[in-house]
Amino acid sequence: MDTDTWTTVDAWFTDRLRPRDDTLVDIVAAGAALPQIQVSDLQGGFLSVLARALRARRILEIGTLFGFSTVVLGRALPADGHLVTLEASAEHARIARDNIDRAGLGDRVEVRLGQALESLATLAEEGAGPFDLVFVDADKQNNPSYWDWALRLTRPGGVVIVDNVVREGRVTDEESRDPDVVGTRELTDAVSTAMAEGRVDATVLQTVGSKGWDGFLVATLT
Ligand code: SAH
Ligand code: DHB
Ligand code: MG
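A: This is the predicted complex of the input protein with S-adenosyl-L-homocysteine.
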């Protein structure tokens, strides 16, 4: 088994269950100059299913890129729903805003430009939330802090998802001093503590597919 096989199977299910409509094709085209590190179509499907199962009306995303996951999640919102997405790059935010408008979600989705840690503090000051769903997908070294904020800003029964916790199994390399790996390890310790305190129930889903071998951490607040 290798990435080619995973990609073939990914494409087989994507064709049948989640083929891109013209808007999503345009959105990816508009983001072509940016890193192609958005969630896969099937992973986006998982986010969409979860948002709908939760009847999510308030969603927080950390890490927008060109707005692919943002639009997938935004489409899962009811008409009176709201999604806030945090992005540090002005170029990414600009392209994402265009893509959100392209998808007809301008009234529901807000892109906040700035370091996510600063935007999160501002959101808390504003009394934003509580959110039904938080999708954490920015710089992995700050995941322990994003986790703390997510615990504060999510309602009981709400769900926090953290992308890219497996990264080809790198997380298990105890020697690694890579800040992303260290961030994921510290995140996992923090989640473990929160579970021991009875604050959350959590697990990790490993995934393979067009994005290689990776995984989501999924937690719900008790
Ligand atoms: N969620 C997107 C992919 C996000 S890629 C999708 O699946 O479609 C990660 C994004 O996080 C990048 O756009 C990067 O610029 C942004 N980012 C990285 N560090 C950040 C920080 N400290 N604050 C806010 N955004 C950050
Ligand atoms: C990569 C993938 C991601 O989903 C992400 O958020 C950051 C980086 C990657 O494949 O490098
Ligand atoms: Mg990611």
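Helices lie at 3-17, 22-30, 41-53, 68-75, 90-102, 116-125, 143-153, 179-196. The chain has one domain: 3-221.
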